[in-house]
Amino acid sequence: MTELVQAAVAGPALTASANSVLAAKGRSFYWARQLLGPVHAARATRLYRLCRYIDDLADETSSVLLAKEALAGAAASIRGGHSNQPVIQDGLALLQECSIDSDIFLDLIAGVQSDLERVRMPDMDALLRYCYQVAGTVGLMMCKVLDTDEPAAFPHAVDLGIAMQLTNICRDIAADAVLDRRYLPADLVGDLAPEALINPTGILRDTLRQCVATLLDCADTYYQSGELGLSYLPARARSSILVAARMYHAIGRQLRACNYAYWTGRIVVPPWRKAVITTRALVAIPVSRSFWRHPELHDKRLHFALSNCPSLSSASFLHHAA
């Protein structure tokens, strides 16, 4: 039995599993998915499940050694085009179904693998490269999942992924520090040990507030570019992606509202606020220029850190989004 046939046989069970994973771990995406058509919603859910599976291999495996082995095995399966693992098997079917370059997904795996090493982000360029690997790649894959093949769309999809990841990093500084990870660039906060970020005191709080403000300002620039690319998507998908982007953007706004004090508790967007964000986004659509007209040019300055890095796959980012 071929991998594609096996994936089809296991389809209903995997679909149910993907839905439950999205509902539990991707609440903002689960909310926004309701605006997609059934085919795109099913594909997007499968893509989320695949990416989440890779992420969980790094964060939920019992040891770093086993996690490294599991991720290496997943990468080998993607390169070889076959797997006995149901989620990877379905992922391979999805990559083929949507004509997604496997190197894009391998870039994502490489980013997740880097989390298993000593995470001390040296500078902003390194952080942007990491954000591309673990989230910009998802933007590229989402374009294909949503039947968008226009190359001009890809840089904006990358930017939206980067913006969301920067927001995630700002929200999860303390949680990441518990895992001995410091994503805050040393050129903004110095060579701090992660434990110093968990419950900072004194003047360090001012430094960290300024760092979070800088990262959120950077995220705003990438959100703006990301939304400029919405017009390349199918009409119904534009609404869903816009709402998902605005949900994440709201996390940053709430961080700003509490004076960037991430250490006081993890920011969560409650259902009532999601409803307000959704309503405002949908009401604004008729007068939104970016929703209906393609942007003139992508700001290539946003990708300097990415295009100058040989470690990123030339078959994925440099080919599709430069």
Helical content band: 55-70%
Query: Low-confidence parts lasting 5 or more residues at pLDDT below 50?
Result: 1-10
Mean pLDDT: 87
β-strand number: 2
Q: What is the overall shape?
A: globular
The profile of the biggest β sheet is: 2 strands, parallel
Q: What is the CATH H-level superfamily?
A: Farnesyl Diphosphate Synthase
Description:
By secondary structure, this protein is an all-alpha fold. The chain has one domain (3-320): Farnesyl Diphosphate Synthase (Orthogonal Bundle), CATH 1.10.600.10. It has helices at residues 3-9, 11-25, 27-33, 38-59, 64-80, 86-97, 102-114, 124-145, 154-171, 173-178, 186-189, 203-228, 235-257, 271-284, 289-292, 304-307, 314-320; strands spanning 119-120, 181-182. It has a two-stranded parallel ribbon with strand order 1-2.
Question: Could you provide a short overview of the structure?
Answer:
This protein has helices spanning 3-9, 11-25, 27-33, 38-59, 64-80, 86-97, 102-114, 124-145, 154-171, 173-178, 186-189, 203-228, 235-257, 271-284, 289-292, 304-307, 314-320; strands at 119-120, 181-182. It is built from 17 helices and 2 strands.
List keywords for this structure.
two-stranded parallel ribbon; 69% helix; Farnesyl Diphosphate Synthase; 17 helices; globular; 1% strand; single chain
Would you spell out the secondary-structure blueprint of this structure?
Elements: H1 3-9, H2 11-25, H3 27-33, H4 38-59, H5 64-80, H6 86-97, H7 102-114, E1 119-120, H8 124-145, H9 154-171, H10 173-178, E2 181-182, H11 186-189, H12 203-228, H13 235-257, H14 271-284, H15 289-292, H16 304-307, H17 314-320
Parallel strand pairs: 1-2
Helix pairs in contact: 1-6, 2-3, 2-4, 3-13, 4-5, 4-6, 4-7, 4-8, 5-7, 7-8, 8-9, 9-12, 9-13, 12-13, 13-14
